[in-house]
Structure formats: structure tokens, C-alpha cells
Amino acid sequence: MKSTLKLTLGLTSAMFASTAVSNVAQAEDLTLCWAAWDPANALVELSKDFTKETDIGMKFEFVPWTNYADRFLNELNSKGKLCDLIIGDSQWIGGSAENGHYVKLNDFFDKEKISMDDFVPATVVGYSEWPKNSPNYWALPAMGDVVGWTYRKDWFSKPELQKEFKEKYGWDLAAPTTFDQLKQIAEFFQKREIDGKTVYGASIYTERGSEGITMGAMDVLYSFGFKYENPDKPYEMDGFVNSEKSVKGLEFYKALYDCCTPPGASNSYMGEGVDAFKSGQVAMHMNFAFTWPGLQKDENVGGDKIGYFANPKGPDGDQFAQLGGQGISVVSYSDKQEAALKYIKWFANKDVQAKWWSLGGFSCLNAVVKDPGFPASQPYAQTFLDSMAIVKDFWAEPSYAPLLQASQKRFHDYVVAGQGSAKDALDGLVKDWTEVFQDDGKM
Amino acid sequence: MLNRTADSVARATPEPLARKVRGISDKGLAWLFISPTILLLLAINIFPLFWAIYLSFTNYRANRPNEVVRNVGLANYKRILGDQDIWIAMQTTAHFVFWTILLQTLIGFTLAWLIDRKFRGHAFWTTIILVPMMLSPAVVGNFWRFLYEPQIGLFAYAISFVTGIPATQIGMLSNVSLAPWSIVIVDTWMWTPYVMLICLAGLRSIPEYIYEAAEVDRASNWRQFWSITLPMALPFIMLAVLFRGIENFKMFDMVNLLTGGGPGSTTEVASITLKRQAFESWRTGYSSAFAIILFVAVFGLANIYVKALNKVKQR
């Protein structure tokens, strides 16, 4: 009886102890929320070093891009504790700051001597600051990203195509520097037989459901002269959003869609673009820079066959590109904020940032991207630098979601469905955006 | 055996509890049994409905937890009824409901009529016809998206083979004129078996002696169809139309998977608009008002329809 009791007590204690130990370990685990994409895999690899250094385990919650905003904004709005750290989209910063989802990082940065001057300025404004251009920081720039282009260098260098192109357009077939040139190249390749296969001009963003067509159209509109508002009078949009130059830009985007995209590309975003390029369907491909490391490694289209170029110039020589990317924030509802801040401190370290870049992440730290060896470190590094120097971003207001939905609808109705004119679409956009800002009491 | 078990349970029941249970009337006992279900129903159906009604009169936005919620009266309702986009979405929905029901009823009834002939192997063919209905809408939506694909899709190739139009020009999901029909085709393919099944039940319920009497009166097959088959199967057909009508009025999954409401807004049915307002634009109060309007519309139309159905049954 005695021995049975001892055994029972012993087993119970052992079970209790093992549960307690595992609870202690779990209590130190941090959950990081982000999109499910290639850089997330690189971050998993990188974070192993953090666990080694601190004994803090890392768990990851990655959600595909199509559900990323829905899933995590729901989580933040319901004050959920799932995420201790979140790499939230750049446009969420206003809403997340004003609604108290993110921890303000100013005091922490001061204490840990983390200076925002050490990061690429555009990424600080885009990913960290709210209100914009004010020293109020809610995130550490984590993943630099920007819309740029890839092209089939092997097709561009075919002597017979170069000859034919030169005869037709009067200039050498090469990566375009203006949007006019880009369209000429796209037209040239559209429905052309190359290596026994019909190919098409370009893959561009046309997706309706989340943010695709807005990212694509804006990427072009900026360089044509589009402005969100009167620089001297915030929220005054009439004459800026729907200016003559903006109309020309949107007409150009529609013309590019009509003339030079593959059949059925009416709902195409990052994944579909990568598929079109990888399968050898298109000569040029608009996409965020995060796709470049994967394409570079691709056996069929990577290596020497791929080239990169920054967004071309518009008719007046303006050159801008749509900002992507995200900052990393501490979720204010997390019970493990201290450990989460430790991760941010570790992530801001120069060596960690250098490794981040080498693993396929896009560092925003000046010390990494301004290193003399950086442009030669990857074939796309220089294009990334050039592109990051010309970025502009969509509204980052707390009401970014209805603002985005309005542009998605107006752009898709005009560009893909061919309803109305570019002027109608942009006038409608001014009306929709005005309503949103009136609802917010900002107008 | 059963009595012995009941006796042993009764004996095992503690005295005070047994006394209490003995004191409960049949009605009380019935309430006791159904109360968990009622509570669940109240919690997950009735409460959200009343909560949505309350929210529809406010400016509440789920992504602004710290914002003061104001009562805006009927402003959301006025705005919805004056919103051109909402009316376009309602028209798109009506177009979709009309054509799917028409096609499904015609094809479903014809199939049921043919199956009812009880030819050799009819049971096998019934099972084959029912297969699409048994698939998940998510699976159906995804594989039809591939079938419609202009470069690799079998549907485009089949049409190209028949018409001679190059397959790459058959953009079922990207063409403004074809996209609404692409959804009608898939919904008809998937749900015609359901209509067929209900119609078949109707046809099988017609007593054989009525046809025998008609034969004696030398009524032609055509006459028998118009005077016996159709009138007696009509309540079943109407029931199928009611079920499909309600389902298709709130259709979301298939449209979302196939076109996402595009190209442009050509296939944006009311449920897609509602989802965008509620979970993408986060206009919770506004979308609650829209949901209430849709609910009242479906509920009202269904009630009128049920009354008509009862009249037909009474004839």
C-alpha cells in the first residue's frame, strides 16, 4: 500500500513538474504574426539566432496575403492576444496607432539607443511614423519593399528580336526608362512566338478583392503626376486626384492592360504575376521586390535570364514607385511586451540585419543598404536601392480600408470592365474619398 | 427488460430529486428538454439579429473600438436606399437569381421526368446526376476557375472546338458580358440535381390510378402531362424554387471564388457588397442596416411565396 502511494505521489509530482516546466517554457514563447510568403520563411530561419541568444522561443502565425488584412485586423480589433509581435502592412499604421493596437516605441528607442536616422528615410515614414513626418514611432522598419519590374533578359538579347525592334521603334531593345518605352516593348512581345510558345507583353496588377489593382495603377499614376491631395491644404483632392495628368496615367494603365497582358489576366496580383513570369508567359512583370530572390533562383527564368528595372519615368520625367513593405510592432494587448521588445532590439542589430538581407529579407538599415558591397551583393540589389529612393505610399489614414475599397472598385470598373472613362473613375474616387473623410470628421 | 431498467434508475434516483421530478408537469418537462436548444438559438441567432438591428442605427465601426458610438437614426438606411452601387448589386442579384432558378427548374424537372420513366439503369444515372450537388462549393468554385481559364481550361477549348473562336479569346471570367453567365452555368451545374430530386419526389407521389383513369378516358400523353403531372408536381416545383431562391439570393461562396465580384463590379451580388462593407471597409453600422434590408426583403418575398404555395396545394 505504502509503495503504491509513493509511486502515485512520485508520478503525480513528476507530471506536475513536467507540466510546470513546459508552462514556463511556453510563457516565454513569443508569437509573431505576418503574411505567409518567402520572406516569412527567411525570418523563421533568422529568428533561430534570437532563441539561441535569449532562450525565448518563437512561434509564427503566417496567413496568406489574400486573408492577411482580414485575419489580423480582426485580431487587433478584437484586442486578441494571439500576436505578441506583428509585421503589419504599412497602411495599417494610422489606424493601429490611433486605436491603440500598437505600443508606441519612442521611449524604448531612446532607452536602447535605436535611432530612426539609421534607417532608410522612406521606410521610417512609411512603416513607423504616425502622424506621418512626425517623430512618433509605432514600428521598427522590418521589410523594405517596393513595386518594380523584372524582364526576360534572354529574350531581350536575342539578335533577331533586337534587330526587328530597332527597325520598328528606332531605339535599342533594353530595359525601359519611360512608360512609353515600356508599352512599346510590351506591344512588341504581345502574342509573339518565342521558342515555339506564344508569349505576352507584361503582367500587371489587376486584382479586385484586396489591394492589387490599386497598387498597380498607383505605381503608374504617381509618375504621371497624380497627387493624393493639395500639398498646401490637406484632404483637398479635387484637381489633384482627378487632374488631367492623373487621367492620362489611368488611361495609360488601361491601355497597357488592354494591349499587352496575357488572356484572362483580369484578377492578377503577386502570386499570379510570379506564375506568369515563371511559366515563361510574359516578357515583363510588375511585382514587389520580395519576389525577386525567388525568381532569381528559378531554374527556368532566373540566373542570367532575368533582369530588373525600377519603375520607369512618366511623360514629364517624374519617377515614383509604389511602396510596399512593413514595420514590426509590439501588440499592446500582448502579455509579453518585454520579451517582444527584446526581439525588436535584437532585430535592429546591424549583424542581424545583414543576415536578414542575406537570407532573402529586405533590410531597411542604412548600414546594410549603404554598404559599398551592397549593390553587387545580389543582381537585384541596385534596382532595389534605386526603387526605394523613389517611393510613395497609399493613404495610411485610420480609414485606409474604405479608401482602398473605393479605389479598388473605381479602378477595376474602368481598367478591367471598361465602364466609363478615366475621368469618371477619378471623379468618382474624389467623391468616395471625400465621403470617407467627411465621415471621419476630417473635412 | 425496459421496465426493469426504468425501475432500477428510479430506485437509484435520490429521494428529493425524484420528488422534484415527479412534481414536474409534462409541459414543464418539455420546456426543460428544449430549453438548451432555445438558449442556443437565442444566443447564436436571435441575439445577433437584435444586436444587428441596434447597430444599424449607429455609426459603429468594428475597427474603431475606442470611438464613441453615436445613434444616427435612419441615416444608414437612407444612405443605402439612395446608393447607386447598392441598387446595381441588387439588380445583379436579381439577374442571377432569375436565370439560375429558371434554368435549374427547367433542366431539373426534365431530368426528374426522364428518370421517373424508370428505364434500365435509372438508379445509376440518378446517382451520377447527383454528384455535383455533393461537392463542396469551394472545390467546385476552384476547379471551374481552372476549367474557365482561357489558356489551359477545358471549357474554353471545348467552346473553341465547337465555334472555332480561339480559346485564348474566351475569357469567361474576364469578359464583362460572359462573367455573369459563367456563374449561372456553374450554379446550374451544381444545383440542378437538387431541384431534380425534389421534382422526382413530386412525380413519384402522383398515384398511378390517376394515370390509369386518364388512359381509360383516352387522354393523350400531352394532355396527361398538362392536366395531371404538372399540376400535381407543382407544389414540389414551387418548393424547390423557394429553396433555391433563398439560397441564391444570399449566394456568396461561388461568386467570391469565381470572379470575386469582377470584372469591375459586373458580378458583384448583394452578399459580396455586404461583405466588403462589413469586413473590408469596416462600416459595421452601415452594413448591419444593409443586412437588415436584405433579411426583410428575403423574409417578405419568401412569405408571399409560401402563401402562394399553400394556395396551390389547396387546389
UniProtKB/TrEMBL annotation, chain A:
Primary subcellular site in the record, as a coarse category: periplasm
InterPro entries: Bact_solute-bd_prot1 (IPR050490), SBP (IPR006059)
Keywords: Periplasm, Signal, Transport
Keyword Signal: yes
GO CC, one annotated term: periplasmic space
Keyword Flavoprotein: no
A Pfam family of this chain: SBP_bac_1
Compartments in which it is found: Periplasm
Domain of life: Bacteria
Family to which this protein belongs: Belongs to the bacterial solute-binding protein 1 family.
Protein name: Family 1 extracellular solute-binding protein
Taxonomy of the source species: Bacteria, Pseudomonadati, Pseudomonadota, Alphaproteobacteria, Hyphomicrobiales
Automatic annotation (TrEMBL), chain B:
Record-annotated ABC transmembrane type-1 domain positions: 90-305
Membrane topology: Multi-pass membrane protein
Highest rank taxon of the organism: Bacteria
Cellular component GO terms, alphabetical: plasma membrane
Alphabetized CDD domains for the sequence: TM_PBP2
Record-linked InterPro entries: MalF_N, MetI-like, MetI-like_sf, Sugar_ABC_transporter
Organism annotation: Mesorhizobium temperatum
The keyword Cell inner membrane is annotated on this UniProt entry: no
Bilayer-crossing regions: 29-54, 96-115, 121-140, 152-172, 178-203, 224-246, 286-306
Family: Belongs to the binding-protein-dependent transport system permease family.
Name by which UniProt lists this protein: Sugar ABC transporter permease
UniProtKB keywords: Membrane, Transmembrane, Transmembrane helix, Transport
Subcellular location(s) per record: Cell membrane
GO biological process: transmembrane transport
